[in-house]
Amino acid sequence: MTDDMQDTTPDLEVRTLLRVLDGQRRHVLGTLDGLDAEALRRPVLPSGWHCLGLVQHLALDVERFWFRAVVAGDEHVIHGLTSGDEAWRVAPEVPAVDVLDGYRQETQLADAVIRSTPAGAGLAWWPHDLFGEPHLHTLRDVLLHVITETACHAGHLDAARELIDGHRWLVLT
Asked: I want to staple 67 with a disulfide (CB 3.0 to 4.6 A). Which of 9, 45, 93, 113 is the partner?
């Protein structure tokens, strides 16, 4: 997010939360910087997920789902949602750069929703079939949820990256 984008968001709380979320998004991409396509697809944990699949999950199941479907109620997005772990699976013919660019694009689309919605605004749609009764109620709630989920996955990527090549994102001694 640029300073120009921050200025277009009238709600100080939303600007602040978006700045924190953007830091976590940069952490996700920064942790992976320098890995080649093979390394991005290498599973290093017994569960078998790989870095590229996790980034695609963040793009589709987190950014797209929570902001464009839940907050904005975009019918096209809602009708295109998948019901399983499809987002974690990246077809071998899909270039790694496409997945990373897809994440960047989804964050930009999410930012447009975030910047145009007050922190206390109610949600446009709720996935009762997945979560039952709503446990999140406002943009603020969704932002805090997505910040937490993105930070958690950034930590997963930190561990995966260290297992792949020993590189560590940020080490304070």
From this structure: 113
Angle 26-30-36 from CA coordinates, rounded to 5°: 140
Give CA–CA dist 48/56, Å, rounded: 15
From start to end of the chain, where are the E strands? none
pTM of the model: 0.93
Q: Which of 43, 50, 38, 62 is nearest to 88 (CA)?
A: 50
Rounded Cα distance between 74 and 72, Å, is 6
Report, in this order, helix, strand and coil percent for the chain, each rounded to 5: 65, 0, 35
**DSSP one-letter code for 138:** B
